[in-house]
User: Which sequence fits this backbone?
């Protein structure tokens, strides 16, 4: 499975700490931003109606490793790679590239769920969604 998607993102002043380096929590926000852009690029949303169900993708795991600093006004390429589309879960990685060099690597696992009343229930990824998320085989 080689589904790659990328966006460019400039670091804002509000995303930096007192040392002028992007605060670690903002990497997670950016991972979510590129994830949402990826879903839109294949005609989906992370919160959508599908076959009469309200479908969402809550995270069950999110990590990020840091390899170098990122500063105000640096332009990052956020490169999302779908690693695995399981029965109910979706795994992807996000490379944070600064001038082509990896400065961080994020990993996220989300589970396909239907929102019902006051709760969520995991469901198998519907075939139509699976096809779009997995990309060409």
Assistant:
């Amino acid at each position: 499975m080689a589904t790659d998607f990328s966006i460019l993102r400039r670091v804002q002043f509000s995303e930096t700490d007192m040392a002028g380096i992007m605060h670690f929590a903002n990497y997670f926000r950016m991972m979510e931003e590129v994830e949402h852009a990826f879903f839109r690029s294949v005609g989906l949303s992370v919160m959508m109606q599908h076959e009469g169900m309200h479908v969402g993708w809550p995270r069950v795991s999110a990590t990020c490793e840091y390899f170098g600093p990122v500063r105000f006004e640096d332009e990052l390429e956020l490169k999302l790679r779908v690693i695995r589309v399981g029965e109910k879960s979706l795994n992807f990685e996000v490379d944070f590239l600064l001038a082509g060099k990896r400065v961080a690597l994020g990993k996220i696992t989300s589970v396909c769920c239907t929102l019902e009343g006051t709760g969520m229930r995991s469901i198998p990824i519907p075939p139509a969604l699976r096809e779009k998320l997995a990309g060409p085989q």
Q: What stands out?
A: The CA atoms of residues 114 and 120 lie 6 Å apart. Helices lie at 25-41, 127-134. The chain has one domain: 3-134.
